[in-house]
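Suppose you are handed a protein chain with no further information: no name, no annotation, nothing but its sequence. What can you learn? This example shows the usual starting point.
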Amino acid sequence: MNEELTLRKMKQRLNKGGFICVLDLYQNETFFDYLLSFIASILNPIMMLIHRGRLSITEEEREAWKDHFQYDMYKTMKEIRWIVKKELGNAKVRQHLFWRYSI
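A reasonable first move is to predict its three-dimensional structure. Written in structure tokens, the prediction is:
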């Protein structure tokens, strides 16, 4: 996905007083990113057990995601913040656990 173009188009179509909410994944780059990833790696199976009643995804889920993961390319938080500043100005970018960020 071309994040710059997508955010630009979203902003152009935004109604006055409206807002844009984006939740996506990021690529680890900094020590902090890797620290969060380590913590998420420990918590992820626990969360799956709580929410799904098992520690991992099913074989059917794994198969469904196989092609998707093959083509996924994620930006680093630095790249994301640069794009957001360029396209949306002072929008808030927040880094979250489980490899996610929000705008």
